[in-house]
Specification:
The protein is of the alpha/beta class. It contains 19 helices and 17 strands. The longest helix is centred in the first third of the chain and has 47 residues. The protein is elongated.
């Protein structure tokens, strides 16, 4: 270091101290650049780090905004910075105005600004991991630039470890961010055509993703209208059988005499009116998925035949002795209480255990909270477009009624309700009076609040308001803030209305 001046030795000593003392690696790099600017009059100091085959700016003394930082990226071999990263050798541009290799991508320098540019590699364990570059006022003294190169190479060696750690930390943060985004997406994004973000439905989505890649038999349970077929289709769409057929047989919609023929098919002449051979649903589903809806409605006789089909994966058409091997995935669904049916000897236990390899239970719509409005908006958009009434909306009163209703018919009832409201609405906004009578009655039932016939209008309105407030408070376990949010009322106004209604 005999050719290094005292001032340069002082700079190296301060930088070495900073590297040893600082714990935040990015702050180390920024501190180094500030020292170079303050003591060596080196402008626009910049550290870039290599990510794959691209260099990105990690620290700089230039005041670059996010857009300029995004632009300031260089591929290996691109410009002076990319060339240094590719070759591992320092580069000096005596006059940036006359060297076409200098890109000035961030536009931090003026077009006619007389500057020299120095760029040296950051080398860690024999590999280039980034660059260190600075601007110098152009003086015409090439010996000064040579000294600067030597100084910057020493500083680059001092900072290489910190730069490497910085790069690794950035990569780790990015990996964690990507993982979090993926997990959030998996939790929130619904498979297939399903909608809703309540915890119960997110758990269903996760179960669908867990079982879909396998060929395990799935039993979907839930009340009528909760979307059991949508779950089955979502499983099919995420499975290796996605391109295969999805065949549905509703066991409750067919008389007992036709279920076997629908499922397994029949030969010509097998029974009266069997004029031709008919392929059954099990055969039509080859290579795909067979969805047996309302499995709890099968007779005991048919349950025995279905059990053999599930166990052996073979069947015969009615009137034939030829065994046909089945290559289908079984998904069953029921809205009935199978445990109760088994206790009453109406459903076989062995069939139950064969079906429920992977059970999925769908929550009723009344337990899905704000999903009611998510689904309502979805149906409103779809149905209003169907009837050329695009742009329709739900009034606040209608939204509150939808949320307060018990929905015994679940999602299917909600869709029918929205369709009726779209047809009856006249002004492009669905009001409470556009909703079916059952919903209006449920919202304004007088359970524990009687309204005398001779009561004034103000008295009746006060009684109805008390009922609405009381119902909201019960739904939210006495939480005023939550009840107020649901009703669209501020906390102060909620307290006032509760006090006025005598519900303190």
């Amino acid at each position: 270091m005999k050719n290094i001046a005292t001032s340069e030795i002082s700079v190296l000593r301060e930088i070495a101290s900073a590297v040893m003392r600082e714990r935040n690696v990015r702050e180390i790099l920024e501190h180094v650049l500030k020292i170079l600017e303050r003591d060596m009059r080196m402008m626009r100091g910049t550290f870039t780090l290599l990510e794959g085959d691209e260099l990105r700016i990690e620290a700089t003394t230039s005041n670059l905004n996010a857009e300029e930082l995004a632009i300031g990226r260089y591929r290996l071999g691109e410009g002076i910075t990319g060339l240094v990263a590719k070759t591992g050798k320092a580069e000096v541009v005596f006059d940036i105005r006359s060297d076409r290799r200098f890109l000035n991508r961030t536009k931090a320098r003026g077009i006619d600004e007389p500057l020299s540019f120095i760029c040296v590699p950051l080398i860690h364990s024999g590999h280039v991991i980034g660059t260190l570059s600075v601007d110098r006022e152009m003086t015409g003294d090439t010996s000064t630039l040579a000294r600067d190169v030597m100084l910057l190479e020493i500083i680059a060696n001092l900072c290489a470890e910190a730069a490497f750690v910085c790069r690794e930390q950035c990569a780790e943060r990015e990996a964690l961010a990507n993982e979090n985004r993926e997990l959030r997406g998996r939790l929130s994004a619904s498979p297939g055509e399903m909608l809703g973000t309540c915890p119960e439905m997110c758990a269903v989505y996760e179960q669908i993703r867990q079982v879909a890649p396998s060929d395990a038999t799935v039993l979907i349970r839930g009340a009528s209208g909760t979307g059991k077929e949508l779950v089955a289709r979502a499983i099919q769409s995420l499975s290796s059988r996605a391109d295969g057929p999805f065949v549905v047989i509703n066991c409750a919609a067919l008389p007992e005499s036709l279920v076997e023929s629908e499922l397994f098919g029949h030969e010509k002449g097998a029974f009266t009116d069997a004029h031709t051979r008919r392929i059954g649903r099990a055969e039509a589903a080859q290579g795909g998925t067979l969805f047996l809806d309302e499995i709890g409605d099968l007779t005991m006789t048919m349950q025995v035949k279905l059990l053999r089909f599930l166990q052996e994966r073979t069947f015969s058409r009615i009137g034939s002795n030829v065994e046909i091997t089945s290559n289908v995935r079984f998904i069953a669904a029921t809205s009935l209480d199978l445990e109760d049916l088994m206790a009453r000897k109406l459903f076989r236990e062995d069939l139950y255990y064969r079906l429920s390899v992977f059970p999925i239970t769908l929550p009723p719509l009344s337990a899905r909270g704000d999903d009611v409005l998510v689904l309502a908006q979805h149906f409103l958009s779809k149905i209003s477009s169907k009837y050329s009434k695009s742009g329709m909306s739900l009034s606040v009163a209608a939204q509150n009624m939808l949320k307060n209703y018990s929905w015994p018919g679940n999602v299917r009832e909600l869709e029918n309700c929205i369709e009726r409201a779209v047809l009856t609405s006249r002004d492009g906004c669905i009001q409470g009076y556009d909703l079916p009578a059952a919903i209006r009655k449920d919202n304004f039932a007088d359970e524990d609040i009687s309204v005398p016939d001779d009561m004034t209008l103000d008295g009746q309105l006060a009684a109805f308001e008390k009922k609405i407030l009381s119902s909201a408070m019960r739904r939210h376990g006495g939480n005023r803030a939550a009840a107020g949010r649901q009703l669209g009322v501020s906390p102060r106004m909620m307290n006032y209305r509760l006090k006025k209604a005598g519900l303190q």
